[in-house]
Design brief:
Helix 7 packs parallel to helix 9. The protein has 9 helices and 7 strands, in the order H-H-H-E-H-E-H-E-H-E-H-E-H-H-E-E. Strands 3-2-1-4-5-7-6 form a 7-stranded mixed beta sheet, sandwiched between helices. By secondary structure, the chain is of the alpha/beta class. Helices cover about 35% and strands about 20% of the residues. The radius of gyration is 17 Å and the shape is globular.
């Protein structure tokens, strides 16, 4: 397993400026820079999955819980082979986060407005704007959805049902899903962080039945109930988190 003793998992850090009970850290990418994921994701991924830039049909990427957009932009540049010609690219990325301040920062620093968009959205409450985005591009599904280090925060704030609903919703709108689920040790660290800052514990933490290998639980649910299958594992990040790629059957 990949380890990095000299680094601290951003979800394990207890001295963050603010409790960030939804994972909306103001400086997340200073702890977990985009390269930590990009080093595992092939730059040819879109082409490997059969998606061609510059064709008649657009290719749509969704970044779930995009924070300040650093990873969204980095992923786009990583996967689109000629980002300097982005105005001609038919690859489009939509990132969303529930934190309005982070979305404002993402919009202000976005270097590719023609191809990358950011919106404030809480996927646990509604998906209408995602459907509208798909309709605008005459697509029924996102070709690739990224859900990286988001599952724990939905799980802690909305319980087992909320986690399973998130997975089902993403499966219903995605041809391919790249998933990075936080391990259980991060749940304990997140709860400890809130207590250290004098905040109440997560409402669902002590009653969660989905525990242990959360990534494996997610895989089972996606395959048994959501019509998806595991296509490939890209290994583990420096924080010992698996990057799992699923596709619709």
């Amino acid at each position: 397993m990949a380890t990095c003793p000299s680094l601290k998992d951003p979800d394990d850090v207890v001295n963050e400026p603010g409790a960030a009970p939804y994972g909306n850290f103001i400086n997340y990418y200073s702890f977990n820079p985009p390269e930590n994921r990009l080093s595992l994701i092939p730059a040819t991924l879109l082409r490997d999955l059969g998606y061609r830039d510059g064709g008649d049909e657009p290719t749509l990427i969704l970044d779930v819980g995009c924070n300040s957009g650093d990873l969204s932009v980095a992923v786009y540049k990583h996967l689109v082979q000629e980002p300097e010609r982005s105005e001609r690219s038919t690859v489009h990325l939509l990132g969303f986060d529930l934190d309005e301040t982070l979305i404002e920062r993402a919009e202000q620093t976005n270097p590719l407005h023609d191809n990358i968009s950011f919106i404030r959205l809480d996927i646990t409450e509604e998906t209408t704007r995602l459907q509208e985005y798909l309709s605008q591009h005459s697509c029924s599904h996102f070709h690739l959805s990224l859900c990286l280090a988001v599952t724990m925060w939905v799980h802690l704030n909305h319980g087992d049902a909320g986690l399973l609903q998130l997975l089902a919703r993403l499966a219903s709108i995605s041809h391919h899903l790249l998933l990075e689920a936080q391990p259980w040790k991060c749940y304990r660290s997140a709860a400890r962080r809130l207590r250290k800052l004098g905040r109440s514990d997560f409402e669902h933490f002590k009653t969660l039945k989905i525990r242990g290998d959360v990534a494996e639980h997610a895989r089972e649910h996606l395959e048994r109930h959501c019509g998806m299958e595991l296509l490939q594992s890209f290994g583990s990040t420096a924080w010992d988190r698996k990057l799992l790629l699923f596709r619709r059957r």
